[in-house]
Amino acid sequence: MTVMEQRGAYRPTPPPAWQPRTDPAPLLPDAEPYRVLGTEAAAQADPELLRRLYAQLVRGRRYNVQATALTKQGRLAVYPSSTGQEACEVAAALVLQERDWLFPSYRDTLAVVARGVDPVEALTLLRGDWHTGYDPHEHRVAPLCTPLATQLPHAVGLAHAARLKGDDVVALALVGDGGTSEGDFHEALNFAAVWQAPVVFLVQNNGFAISVPLAKQTAAPSLAHKAVGYGMPGRLVDGNDAAAVHEVLADAVRRAREGGGPTLVEAVTYRIDAHTNADDATRYRADAEVETWREHDPIELLEREMNARGLLDEDTRRTVREAAEEMAADLRARMNQDAVLDPMDLFSHVYAEPTPQLREQQALLRAELEAEQEGAH
Amino acid sequence: MTTVALKPATMAQALTRALRDAMAADPTVHVLGEDVGALGGVFRVTDGLAKEFGEDRCTDTPLAEAGILGTAVGMAMYGLRPVVEMQFDAFAYPAFEQLISHVARMRNRTRGRMPLPITVRVPYGGGIGGVEHHSDSSEAYYIATPGLHVVTPATVADAYGLLRAAIASDDPVVFLEPKRLYWSKDSWNPQEPQSVEPIGRAVVRRPGRSATLITYGPSVPVCLEAAEAARAEGWDLEVVDLRSLVPFDDETVAASVRRTGRAVVVHESGSFGGPGGEIAARVTERCFHHLEAPVLRVAGFDLPYPPPMLERHHLPGVDRILDAVARLQWEAGN
């Protein structure tokens, strides 16, 4: 009997029993961003950690203000301020062990500085004297990255390599809400979940990709929900609550270190300043919206909590502010010195050994420089 | 003196052997890509590596070229030497941002503190009857990107030697594998230690006196065949196999053209904006007073790679090369 003759009596063979690969329920983020400050959970927060977060928040805010001022003086080509987002930056830096790696995006200078990189070296890219000022291996901080989300697969690869070598190293990668639309975001999360790589992704959802609001960026319930599709947990946290961000990241880092695989954390925050000094934010958002977020300022949130617990006396406050002023004064003074550049450096780092073609061009530039110098005498 | 029995081996076998030897010699060498594990790659170049070295050393990745190369960047940052396979030329395009924005420039942007020893294996070129996106010659994109080395073997021995050199290089190397030559055989002794060529040296494959054919990769055997055919017409053609497009061996090429006074550049990729224009310019700059005729190019047409039933019209063949050679009897005013 042919298949055609079977018509009527024919019953298709059902597909083999289907099972979900991963139970989605534990991966789903909470309905509300997780908070610590101003809630009952705050009583559990370690006073020493709160003090460290506070000192770094104040320092970070001062850094943002100083760097923005330097753009007005022409000392920085551009500065994407993270004012309003300092809690994410600081928590990301403080949650890591020395052996761990941080993969920043271009707005994450504060996280880089909080990790221990020299404040001037962290600005090299934005100042324009070279692309990366610091040694990435020294502080285990990848170069500040301007293409969006391309640093995420690097974090996955590094974490994977560390695990292959038997090192309990975790990579923490930072990305903005706009970056979650890029293909590299998808590929990085997918690789991380498949390989169970010890990596944590922190999305700083600050509301806008330059001028495009989140509603035009994604139709997902939240950015944290995207985790479920990859088979990793998604966590939603109040990005202005430094204690909450730290706690959620600490959980994710611990999980990764213990072999539990990657986590996607969405920190809901807001970019108080414009995208960069070159942007006019009044064209795409209302002042009233900015004001509501100003009332949810990360430094004030923490101050209120610390006051309530008697952790912040006037002496501490003054010491912290003075240290921040000192950092700013030093940054200002050093940035006001003209960068010392050697044009021949252009050829030094293209290949381990310059190609014959580069050697010819190197000789050309050397001759031009010598002619310039003779002309100057 | 002992004679070594030379057995025929294919280029694909030599590449496999190079990967195996590199992995055995250096535990930091890792192979990753789509289908490189159990299948051994669609061209079987990674055959047996997963079995011999384990899936952590020869890893089947998710199907995502940017992810493959992007994670290789992170692996290299942590001290590994990744060798990634792009499966087919046109499949590598999603990885171009990682290649251009990170792989090629990480050494430079970090002032030499973070070199990336990554080898990107790209099977390239036509002549195998592949459908769209399986036959592109994408070398112009790679050679236009500073920070990358770009090499391509044409012989079984070079396939081994150049791949070992690429993997050993502290800089990223785009290793272009002419797929049409995967099954080409040479006498080659896989038992003996094989010579590892330094990257950046061209070689004269066939000495000649009347003109130089400058070529590389899949066009090398075509040029050798053309040189044989040209003898009947009284032409004694020299064939230079570049082997490396970046760095470029100006010396070997210029020395040959100064001897012969005439040159034709032959490659499969398009002519406009292709490698031939760069090579012709370099030859002209160095050999102008030795040239008896303009440097000519025989290349693929400037069109998207054609469907397989038409590709023979596109690929530079012996006749088109011989026509160009005939045009080298150039006289002013022609």
From TrEMBL, chain A:
Protein name: 2-oxoisovalerate dehydrogenase E1 component alpha subunit
Biological source species: Streptomyces achromogenes
InterPro entries listed in its UniProt record: Alpha-ketoacid_DH_E1_comp, DH_E1, PdhA/BkdA, THDP-binding
Cofactor: thiamine diphosphate
Gene3D superfamilies in the record: 3.40.50.970
Enzyme Commission number(s) from the entry: 1.2.4.4
UniProt entry tagged with the keyword Oxidoreductase: yes
Keyword Isomerase carried by entry: no
Domain Dehydrogenase E1 component span(s) in chain numbering: 68-330
UniProt keyword list: Oxidoreductase, Thiamine pyrophosphate
GO-annotated molecular function: branched-chain 2-oxo acid dehydrogenase activity
Region: Disordered, residue numbers: 1-30
From TrEMBL, chain B:
Keyword Oxidoreductase attributed: yes
InterPro entries cross-referenced by the UniProt entry: THDP-binding (IPR029061), Transketo_C/PFOR_II (IPR009014), Transketolase-like_Pyr-bd (IPR005475), Transketolase_C (IPR033248)
UniProt keyword list: Oxidoreductase
Residues covered by the Transketolase-like pyrimidine-binding domain: 9-184
The protein's Enzyme Commission number: 1.2.4.4
MF terms (GO), sorted A to Z: branched-chain 2-oxo acid dehydrogenase activity
The organism's place on the tree of life at top rank: Bacteria
Top EC class of this enzyme: oxidoreductase
Annotated signal sequence range: none
Cofactor(s) for this UniProt protein: thiamine diphosphate
Keyword Coiled coil: no
Protein name: 3-methyl-2-oxobutanoate dehydrogenase (2-methylpropanoyl-transferring)
